[in-house]
Amino acid sequence: MKRENVLNWDQYFMGLAHLSALRSKDPSTQVGAVIVDSTNRVVSIGYNGLPRGCNDDEFPWGREGGMLESKYAFVVHAELNAILNSPRPVKECSIYVSLFPCNECAKAIIQSGICRIVYECDKYADTDAVKASKKMLRAAGVECVQLTEKISINVNIEKGDI
After folding, report:
1. What's the pLDDT tens digit per position in 82-112?
2. Helices marked H in the chain — which ranges?
3. From CA 145, how far away is CA 107, in angstroms rounded?
4. Residue 113 class from Cβ within 10 Å (0-12 exposed, 13-18 middle, 19+ buried)?
5. Would strands 94-99 and 42-47 be described as parallel, antiparallel, or unpaired?
6. Residue 71 — φ and ψ, nearest 5°?
7. Catalytic-labelled residue, pool 4, 64, 79, 120
8. Which residue ranges does the record assign to the CMP/dCMP-type deaminase domain (predicted)?
9. Crossing angle of the two packed helices 103-112 and 128-140, in degrees rounded to 10
10. Torsion sign over Cα 63, 86, 108, 130
């Protein structure tokens, strides 16, 4: 008899998004994104971090201070990283992301042709950036689905295990 208590596709891909988020060096917010096609094949993965070639030790990771003293001018969001790192077009794909996309990521999602967003957390729902994001996504006909159950990934890697 087969095992009954297995992850559904949404849970599985959100778990991959959480696993990807573990690559982020951001001390306060780790976000992961997974782009999946209509046949449930992973097309691309991303996490929030600095652009390729930028040394993680030479840029700020703080949330406070002016534009050049904080992370906000430098960090590429998980959604944009997944879109930019994709080896093929992502039109008609879904994106799984642990945090609802900001307005800048929403623009990239819409322009790339992604048709569905599955997200978990919407803790910035009251901010102007997320309000603008939701307005654009609605206008563009992008489906937004919030997962009702929280997906957690527990990974213990001890130094020397790798």
Report:
1. 999 999 999 999 999 999 999 999 999 999 9
2. 9-21, 78-84, 103-112, 128-140
3. 18
4. middle
5. unpaired
6. -75, -20
7. 79
8. 8-144
9. 20
10. negative
Residue 11 burial class via C-beta count within 10 angstroms: exposed 0-12, middle 13-18, buried 19 and up:
middle
Whether 143 is a known active-site residue: answer no
**For 21, left (φ over 0), alpha (ψ -120 to 50), or beta?**
alpha
Rounded-to-5 percentages of helix, strand, coil across the chain: 30, 20, 55
CA atoms of 85 and 5, how far apart (whole Å): 33
Exposed e or buried b for every residue in 42-74, given b needs 16+ CB within 10 A?
ebbbbbbbbeeeeeeeebeeeeeeeeeebbeeb
What is the layout of strands, in order, in the sheet containing 116-121?
42-47, 32-36, 94-99, 116-121, 143-146
pTM for the whole thing? 0.91
For the domain bounded by 9-146, which CATH number is listed? Answer: 3.40.140.10
Token representation of residue 65: 């201070």
Of 76, 9, 71, 77, the C-alpha closest to 42 is 9
